[in-house]
Amino acid sequence: MSPAVLFDLDGVLLDSRDAHLATLAGYAMTVLGRRVTIADLPTGAYLAPRDQVLAALGLDGPLHEEAWDAATATAGLRAEPFPFSVGTLTELRAAGVATGLVTLRSRRRVDWLLPPDLLALLDTVVCFEDALPKPAPDGLLLALDRLGADPREAVFVGDTVLDVRAARAAGVQAVGVGWGYTEPEALARAGAEVVIHQPGGLASALLLLTGDRQPNDYAKRS
Length: 222
Prior knowledge:
Blueprint: E1 4-7, E2 14-15, H1 17-32, H2 50-56, H3 65-75, E3 80-81, H4 85-94, E4 98-102, H5 107-113, H6 116-119, E5 124-126, H7 138-147, E6 154-158, H8 161-170, E7 173-177, H9 184-190, E8 194-196, H10 202-210, E9 220-221
Parallel strand pairs: 1-4, 1-6, 4-5, 6-7, 7-8
Antiparallel strand pairs: 2-3, 8-9
Helix pairs in contact: 1-3, 4-10
């Protein structure tokens, strides 16, 4: 079995915080029929559950999928992969490490948000409709099954407490990153075995981890 590195999408490979906030505001504006800006969103809206944010704006009913899709597609034009994403995936694959994505996004929204060259570097993509959502381990285990990888030889790179919990439940090394949606200290408290604070040298750190060696100055064990 080859080692595997699985990634969360938002805040890890994709710089999407502003796009996510714009989606929330745009959707609320459409449904409420009045101007809603990012400044009108509750504090911490970038990390809070979507339904909680919408409820705070007075939207308690079922989600209007067409309106949400329209807001996502428009705001998604503001989301870009982090500059290191393609290089990291390329280096991992060149070293014989399988790569995968496990995200709470739907499949078609992933296709909207990620360019083809990045998608082509992922050996498998597990989306919201494929498995129970994180923190359940189902999505990670499905990705590893598709890759023929052993959880003991795998790493999951995430930026939220839910990501860390899912990794630990799946028996996978939990790696937190410091450039996403959650503070590094919170990821360490949640049980991340490694917290990588800067993206420089990300591939090197992940190769060390999948090779069952101690990470160097790129990463910090919690």
